[in-house]
Structures are given as C-alpha cells and as structure tokens.
Amino acid sequence: MILHNSLDFAQQLDKQDPLAPYRNEFIFPKVNGKEVIYFVGNSLGLQPKSAKKYVDEVMADWANFAVEGHFYAEKPWWDYQERFAEPLSKIVGAKPSEVAVMNTLTVNLHLLMVSFYRPTASRYKIICEEKAFPSDQYLLQSQVTHHGFSPQDAIIEIKRREGEHNIRLEDVLAKIDEVGDELALVMIGGVNYYTGQVFDMKTITQKGHSVGAKVGWDLAHAAGNIKLELHNWDVDFAAWCSYKYMNSGPGNVSGIFIHEKHHNSDLPRFAGWYGHNKERRFLMEPQFDPVKGAEGWQISNLPILSLAPYLASVDMFDKIGMDALIQKRDKITTYLAFVLKEISKEIEGNFEIITPSNPEERGCQISVFLHGEGKELFHYLMKNAVITDWREPNVIRLAPVPLYCSYQDIYQFGQILKQGILSHRK
Ligand SMILES: Cc1ncc(COP(=O)(O)O)c(C=O)c1O
C-alpha cells in the first residue's frame, strides 16, 4: 500500500480499522482540555472503562458478604484467579494449566529462579542481554551472589556489535555454544524495553536446551504485544507484568508461565497455602501437596482488588484475539515509521530509528534518536498533549498501541513534532 502523510489518508485508515471502536472503551487523560495522544502504553496502559465495573463488583461483594465473599461473591474470591487461565493462555500461547497470576514481575522472576536456577560448581553461568532492564540486572546479580558466585564471572551479557543498536541472533547462539557446559540459565527480555527489538525466542530456547541450560523469558514488553507460543517453543518459564500492554493498572499483578513438562517434577520452590492442592486447601494440612500446574507456584491468597481490573482487560483481549491486534499493530507501527521519515525529510532533520525495521523483529514500539534535539522538545510535546517517553540524550520511545491509538493520532503527532522542532530552531 502507498502511504501518505495526510489527515485525509489517516482518517481513511481509521474508517477501515475494525478495532477503531475499542478506542472508546478507554479513558484518555486530558491536557489543556484536549484528549492526549498516548504513546506510552509500553509503560502504563490506559484505563479500560470496564475496569471500574469489575473493581466496584468486588467492593460491593466485600460490603455485602465480608468474609463470605470468598465463596458467595458474584465471582467467588477463593478461585477468582482461575478465570485468567483460559484467556491468558491464549494471549501467551500456553495451556491453561501452564499460566497463573500472582505477585509482581521481579518478585515472580526471583521465585521462578528458585526453581529454574539450580547452579552447581561447574554449571552456574547465566546469559542475558546487554543493558537489560535494570530490575533484571539487579535480580540476576543478587541471585548469583545468593548462590555464592560473583556477578562478574557468572553473568554473561550478549553485547551489541560496535555501531549497531540491536543484538544479533547469531551472536546469542554463538555465546550459548561458547559458554556450553557452564551455562545454567538463559534469561532475556523477549522484547527489549529500550529498542523494542523482539528476540527469536523459539531458536534461542532450542539452543539453550541443546547445551543443557534452562531458558526463561521476561515478557514485560511482550505479553499482549507480540505473538507468543510459549508451550510450543518449549520455554521452561516466563513472567510478565500486566500494566503495560495489558492495561491492568499501575504496579499491578504479574503472570507466570511454567511449561507442563515441569509440573510433575521435583523442582524446589518456595511454597504457600495457595499452591496447595485445591480440594484440600482449607483442610489446613501440615504437608504441602502442590497443585499440578503453574498454580502450584502460587504462595499467598490472591489480591482480588488488583485482579479485578486485570480480568476486565483480559476479557477484552479474549474478545478481540491477538491475531487482530497484531494485524493492526503492524499496520499502525509501519505508518508511524513512515510519518517519522516524512517529517525528518520535510524539516531536513536527522531521525534515526533504532528499532529493527523487519516486522518480525519488532512489536508495538518505535525507538528513535532525534539527533540534534533536546529535552525541551519532549516538554513541547507534553504541553501539546502528546505523551511520549524520553530517554537521555534524545531517544524517544513511541508505542502506538493498536487497542486505542488511531492513525489520526499518528498524523497529528507528526505535525506537532514538526512544529516543535521548527519552533526550537528559531
Ligand atoms: C523488562 C522489564 N522487566 C522488569 C520490570 C520490572 O517490573 P516490576 O516493577 O513490576 O517488577 C520492568 C518494568 O517496567 C520491565 O520493563
């Protein structure tokens, strides 16, 4: 399709967009009375209007039933979390028994490493990507230290090549071969938070297994964004947060995946009563008998008020399906990259997109160096109701989330960006 950087063309695309009605299901903040153009759903997704209804329902049940709500609420609390298994398994490409919701992301990665990082004197190294999200770096450093190893020795980062922004698959695979028998775990962000690069999780997982390592993924920027087939890819474990593309609310609950091949294993885990055999959970038995499945890794009873908005969002994803989302995501992300290039030409700017251009290697994020621009441009955008994410010195991260962003948003963003740059040149 030939693309045009015009309002008319963007509006035509919106008219043809089957997901356009979903925009109205979300609440957009306003700046100076104007609804914002929201490009930071990769940080915190917008609030779905239905979230309040789900939360209100729990509040009403709490008021009306108090403790009895565990069994007599509209959606009883004791098994509230089970409502996630079906829809969430479709989002991440798993069997329902392979997913659970609990805790928060970094906490879950720590708990999963209790089971899947079992270092020995000779096999103790972890491969991760260079400049992983800081929480993951601290997580890995503290885990290896906890086991008596030094981070400098035990953590192997895969570097970008000189002058390149993205990590090459061949370099990941070569590093796995090189570390070989010493490799205990590969743990990488499925989508890099900074560049938006999507890793080939299937190939990397296979390779990790071929040298005898376990392979786990931090899917913070992947869940609800890209096509995942965790079961078929034979991934050992994964975890994600729900507040980015899954619109569940600030700091909200994380999801986990544990491949069914591990469900009957004797992997060690930190246990609690909500991982105990469901039929016998309230018998208060002394001996832990885990549920066979990811739920067997649950520890505490679940925070129902936090799960409620997540369930609202997961129900919406279930209605739409990942395939429809991905179709629009590719189209709108391509349009954004096009508009950026057009604006760069028009103003003789120097924009450098650092996200891979191959749609297979990117999701819903374009990261771009606005060479020659400074943070005043970010403030200009904010004042003009465009919310973006700015990283020093001048990288802007833009996520045109297909659920609620429109093609017209992209066109208008281009115009505001152009005005902002021109006005700062004067
Ligand atoms: C890639 C990645 N990993 C981990 C985290 C940390 O998540 P949490 O604070 O929910 O543990 C984030 C948060 O944005 C992230 O982007």
Short account of what is shown:
The chain is of the alpha/beta class and 426 residues long.
Task: Provide an overview of this structure.
The strands form five sheets. The protein has a seven-stranded mixed β-sheet with strand order 6-12-11-10-9-7-8, sandwiched between helices. Helices cover 37% and strands 15% of the residues. It is built from 13 helices and 17 strands. The model has no long low-confidence stretch (mean pLDDT 96). Helix 2 packs antiparallel against helix 10. By secondary structure, it is α/β, with parallel strands linked by helices. The protein is globular.
What are the defining features of this structure?
426 residues; alpha/beta; 7-stranded mixed β-sheet; 4-stranded antiparallel β-sheet; 37% helix; globular; binds pyridoxal-5'-phosphate
